[in-house]
Every structure is written in C-alpha cells, then in structure tokens.
TrEMBL record:
Keywords, comma-separated and alphabetical: Acyltransferase, Lipid biosynthesis, Lipid metabolism, Membrane, Phospholipid biosynthesis, Phospholipid metabolism, Transferase, Transmembrane, Transmembrane helix
Domain Phospholipid/glycerol acyltransferase: 100-216
Protein name per Swiss-Prot or TrEMBL: 1-acyl-sn-glycerol-3-phosphate acyltransferase
SUPFAM superfamilies in alphabetical order: Glycerol-3-phosphate (1)-acyltransferase
Species, as recorded: Suillus discolor
InterPro entries from the UniProt entry: AGP_acyltrans, Plipid/glycerol_acylTrfase
Region (Disordered): 271-358
Family, per entry: Belongs to the 1-acyl-sn-glycerol-3-phosphate acyltransferase family.
Stretches with biased composition (Acidic residues): 305-319
Family annotation (SMART domains): PlsC
Compositional bias ranges of the Polar residues kind: 320-342
Entry keyword Membrane: yes
Length: 358
C-alpha cells in the first residue's frame, strides 16, 4: 500500500493543475490564451531546471556543445504535445554543415519551440549579456553560449572575434537573430538586418545558413494562443569564401532578400489590406445605342491620342544599386529582387537571442 501511495500521490498532485488549466482553456479564448501561456512557461522552466543537470553531466563527459541539442529536443518533445503545436522542418540536411552561422527570423518567445525541433548537434547560441540571469542562463552558460555586452562596443567586437576563433577550432555552429529584436505582424515581414552575424561569418570564413520560420501570427500573438502546425525552412548555405569586410553589406542584403521571399512563400496567407484584390471595375459598354436617323451633316472624326507612359527607372532615384566585385556575390545576386532593407541602426553589440517576451 505504501508503494502505491508513493506512486499515486504525485500523479494526483500533477493532475489537479492540469485539469484546472484544461477547464480554464475551454471556458473562453482569453482563458485558453492564459492557460496555454502558463503551460508553455511552466514547461520551459521545468526543462531549463533539468537542463542544468544535463549540462553538468555532459560537460563532465566532454560533450558540452551537445547540451543545447539534448535540452532543445526534450523541450520540444514535451511542449509540442501539451500545446498541440507541431513543427515541420524542410531542408534539415543543410544543418549537417559545420561550422556555420545560422541566422533566423525572430517573432516571439515561441521561437524556442521551433529551435527545439531543428537545433543541430555541436551548436550553441549568441545571446545578450542580460540573459545570464534569466531561467535559461545557467545551462546557456554551461552549454557554451557566447554572451555579448550590447552596451560596450569593444567588448561586443571582442566577443564576436573570440566566437569565430572557437567555432573554427572546435567545429561549432552559432544561432543568431539579425533582426535584433522580436517582430511579429499579421502580414509576413522582416525588420532591417544588423550586420554582426555576417561580420562574424566573413571574418571567420564560414558559411551562413538562413533558417526561416513561417509567420505564426494566426497561432500566437497577444491574446491568442492556439494550436496547429508551424513550417520551418532551412535554406542552403551561403558561402563567404573570398569575401572581405567590404562585402558584408551586400551579403546582409542578399540573405535578407532570400529569407523574406521564403517567409512569404511558406507563410499562410492572411486577410489584410495588402492582400485584398482591388474591386472589379464595371465592364465597358461595347455596343452603341441605336440612332433613329442619321445626321445629315457628316460628323468630323475626332482623333483620340493615347497616353504616353515614360520609361520608369528601376530605382526611384534613378541610381544603380552598387555591387561588390566578387564572383560569389555575382552568382548569388537575384535579378529583379526588391529589398525592403531599412535604415541601419547602431551596429555595435546587435546580437539578441531568445528574448523572453510575448
């Protein structure tokens, strides 16, 4: 009896909050949002705590840089089931390339779920220094995460240089978010990219792999936390061989254009002003009304001149887009692609990973 009591009591204690959350979730959309959010954060806290012990054990056996892989897969295995959200990954074979700089679009804290599904072996993350004191901090530190002090330019550049040396020496990949902050809207879009990840890749001479997660605004946003399937597409590696620091701006724009096109391709279309078709125009009358009697005076023909449309230059200011004189850049440049690259902000200490906001 005592053995059964030891087994049944913990299950009873666990089942009570689960039943309560399920009841709240079924009550209303708002209740579902907070119930799902509680489950998600609770799962994250539990797995993060367990990840500390995993990090200690794997560090002792010399597999420190596989900690993220094990903890990420564990989190996805639990969270995907309790939240009923599945992640489908296309192009996962590209992640076998190592070392690389992986760059992804950053929408919200739910990104941790897709990272849990696709995060490869022998990989770590680059994060802002403040995350050292978050629930993720302990195992991030023991798993080899590179922390960057965004408020100190010299330290930020030093962290990038040290990360590049370690990546080449140990064959480690890094995951970075070049947007610098979370960004999720109804219509798929990307913020301007900061160049830290691309400086790191060029200076270390390692490829860049774009990782694009579809816009999941329909599943998760403020007040909404639903279920469904999220698509992630891993693009082929972009080589940085032969590139120099002067090529970084064009490389940044090139990768962003590829990611933006992929984001719009794999995301579920939403109803918005940008996607609505213009109203159909009434058909032109093709038949003239009958004339009772012909005009005795012949009408003078009226010559109608068609409007002349002047040639429009490809750029609004008529200037040509500067190009970098490298064979790699020429071979990767996409003809006719229009970049939405915005005004660059301060490019020092720009790296932010796994920001804990919703």
């Amino acid at each position: 009896m005592s053995f059964l009591a030891l087994l049944i009591k913990p299950l009873a204690y666990i089942s009570v909050p689960v039943i309560v959350l399920r009841t709240i979730a079924s009550a209303s959309p708002v209740g579902r949002y907070y119930a799902q959010l509680t489950i998600y954060l609770g799962t994250l806290a539990v797995v993060s705590t367990w990840g500390v012990f995993v990090a200690v054990g794997m560090t002792l056996v010399g597999r420190r840089h596989d900690v993220n892989y094990v903890v990420a897969r564990s989190f996805y295995a639990i969270a995907s089931r309790v939240l009923d959200i599945q992640v489908e990954v296309e192009g996962e074979e590209h992640l076998q390339t190592c070392p690389v700089v992986m760059v992804g679009n950053h929408q919200s804290m739910l990104d941790i779920l897709y990272l849990g599904r696709m995060f490869p072996r022998k990989a770590s993350i680059m994060a802002k220094k403040e995350l050292q004191w978050s629930p993720l901090g302990p195992w991030m530190f023991m798993s080899g995460a590179v922390f960057v002090d965004r408020g100190n330019t010299a330290k930020a550049h030093g962290s990038l240089a040290a990360a590049g040396d370690e990546m080449k020496a140990k064959g480690i990949s890094l995951m970075m978010y070049p947007e610098g902050t979370r960004h999720c809207q109804e219509v798929p879009s990307l913020l301007p990219f900061k160049k830290g990840a691309f400086h790191l890749a060029v200076e270390a001479g390692i490829p860049v792999i774009p990782v694009v997660c579809e816009n999941y605004w329909r599943i998760y946003r403020k007040g909404v936390f639903g279920s469904g399937t999220i698509r992630v597409r891993v693009l082929p590696p972009v080589s940085t061989a032969g590139l120099s620091v002067s090529d970084v701006p064009e490389l940044t724009t090139l990768v962003r254009d590829q990611m933006l096109a992929t984001l719009r391709e794999i995301s579920v279309r939403v109803t918005s002003e940008e996607d609505m078709k213009p109203a159909e125009q009434p058909e032109m009358q093709t038949e003239l009304p009958p004339v009772a009697e012909p005009d005795p005076i012949p009408a003078t023909p009226v010559e109608v001149a068609s409007d002349e449309v002047p040639d429009v230059p490809s750029d609004e200011d008529g200037s040509e887009t500067p190009s970098v004189d490298t064979s790699l850049s020429r071979s990767l440049r996409q003809e006719g692609s229009a970049s939405e690259y915005g005004t660059e902000t301060d490019d020092e200490g720009m790296v932010v990973v796994g920001r804990q906001h919703h």
